[in-house]
Amino acid sequence: MTDRPKKTRSGRNAVESRRRLEGIVASAMDGIITVNDEQRVVLFNPAAERMFGLSAADALGQHISRFMPIRYRETHAAHIQRFAATGVTNRQMGSLGEISGLRADGEEFPIEASISQVQVGGERLSTVILRDITERMVAVDALRESRRRMEGIVESAMDALITVDEQHRIMLFNPAAERMFGVPAAEAIGAPLESFIPERFRAGHAEHIRRFKVAGVTNRRMGALGAVSGLRANGEEFPVEASISQVEVGGERLSTVILRDITERRANEEARHLLAREVDHRAKNALAVVQAVVSLTRAATKEDFVAAVRGRVAALGRAHSLLAQNRWEGGDLAQISTDETTAYHRGGQVRISGPAFLLPPNAVQPVSLLIHELATNAVKYGALSVDSGRVDIDWTILPAGGLELRWIESKGPPVREPAAAGFGSTLVREVTTRQLGGSLDIEWPSSGLRLAATLPLKAYRPDHAAPAAVVDPASPGAVEGRGRGRLLVVEDESLIAMAVCQDLASLGWSIIGPAASVEEARRLLKGIALPDAAVLDVNLAGQSVYPLAEWLQSQQVPFVFCSGYEQLEDHPNYEAWPRVRKPVDIQALDGELRRAREAA
């Protein structure tokens, strides 16, 4: 009697425990399948029904291989046998590796599984708990694809991408970085970032990175870091534009810099800047030449003055047009001769002959003026003043490499050598000997003027410059100074030089020169007392005047620059030096010279 209540309670507990277990199995989110020793299904919970698309009634009694793809069935059977033989009671979820299930409709899907086994009433039962990981695998595949896409972007990026850890050791070095720095990624990974930074910038770089981290800013845009330089493996420095970002991954702060090599852009910017400076310089020089033409031209009447100025300015204009047409690469000598004589003769009076010859840019304007002056002189006094007159213009290239240009007049009125040189003949001589660095031979037979100008191949070569001397006050165009001091004038443009010398001499300066080059200036000063002051053009037919300026400075000779350049950027030491811009205001130049001399 006393044992019956206990047995009843024990039975009720067993039933309750079984119900709880059945409830757990039925409500489980994972599929639960139990098989016997023959691998036939004896339990198939609702989650397994949903997973495989098969009711429990249809699944019970079926072989477990029914729920896996055919290609895995043989391997599965061997695996179950080994598991049973080991005596291990369970293996955790995921320990079976990648497994695939087979739904009733034939669809395969990825699963994660754990397996356990137990002896019940002498029978071995194996239970697998299955988790459908289709969504997880889709997410994993998406993550892999995203990573591949990101790696592809990094690999194909035109800019260099470099990621470093908190010790500034390189963790990522993309192909663009390899090309930029000339180092393979295998060698760069693990190296300190500073090995790609010029040594003089390394301390500043480290401090910049420290401040960037402290600031907590996540990124700084391209170019915000200012001027930055990189260092290639071969030791070459180059300009870069950089952006930087930082992110914390797994408790570690990673910094990524994106670098863009701006060597070509910087070169283009410098070329544009240089072009702008040269255009400005040439424009001001052209205006200064026109100013000199007006200042130096002399005529008996206003009408003659206007005609002379117009003719000379027109010659300058034609020379510039020809240069522009040829992209400032030079001008054809035959074209120059034709342009400068067409307006002054009737058909057949001028014959032009000679080999094809392209004058360099800095010779076009002076040669145009030379031929223009000869043509206007011939119209007034020589062969072109009568219908029967003839002018032969020809040239040959001499064995020594120079060019001989000849102007021969005939069948015109009788001529004789003038008693005094006028502006035109002075200009012809100055242009030939000083500006072009050549020599001039003029003959005056009664039959007509004969001129031979021998020019070097280049428009100006200092070693071919004719020896210059201190202007003799008795020579044409010289004005004796009245006490301002002895002044060295260095200017390669003949017209400007003539005008500046004349105007400054009229204000009281005793002129030494003008010199068209540094070498010529040194020759002028050799063996005489140093000048009291000097006026220096900056660009002497492509040659810099700065070596002469430095020498004058060492000799304590004050000087003033006279240039068409707005800024003397190519020599910072002289950026704030006294300077007068072209076209020249002679009073301003005189004032600067006097102030420079007084300061000295």
Strands, helices and their partners?
Elements: H1 3-27, E1 31-35, E2 41-44, H2 46-52, H3 56-59, H4 70-86, E3 90-91, E4 99-102, E5 108-120, E6 123-132, H5 134-156, E7 160-164, E8 170-173, H6 175-181, H7 185-188, H8 199-215, E9 219-220, E10 228-231, E11 237-249, E12 252-261, H9 263-296, H10 302-325, E13 331-332, H11 333-341, E14 350-353, E15 358-359, H12 361-380, E16 390-397, E17 403-410, H13 423-435, E18 439-443, E19 450-455, E20 485-490, H14 494-506, E21 509-515, H15 518-525, E22 533-536, E23 539-540, E24 543-544, H16 546-554, E25 559-563, E26 579-581, H17 586-599
Parallel strand pairs: 14-16, 20-21, 20-22, 22-25, 25-26
Antiparallel strand pairs: 1-2, 1-6, 3-5, 4-5, 5-6, 7-8, 7-12, 9-11, 10-11, 11-12, 13-15, 16-17, 17-19, 18-19, 23-24
Helix pairs in contact: 9-10, 9-14, 10-12, 11-12, 12-13
Taking all residues together, what is the mean pLDDT? 82
What's the CATH topology name of the largest domain? Heat Shock Protein 90
Give the helix tally. 17
Strand content: 15-25%
How many distinct domains?
4
Question: Based on helices, strands and strand pairing, what is the structural class?
Answer: alpha+beta
- Principal-axes geometry comes out as elongated
| CATH class category name of the largest domain | Alpha Beta
The CATH architecture of the largest domain can be given as: 2-Layer Sandwich
Helix content: 40-55%
Low-pLDDT residue spans? 459-481
CATH superfamily of the largest domain: Histidine kinase-like ATPase, C-terminal domain
How can the largest sheet be summarized? 6 strands, antiparallel
Rg calculated over all Cα atoms: 48 Å
Number of strands: 26
Distance between the termini: 138 Å
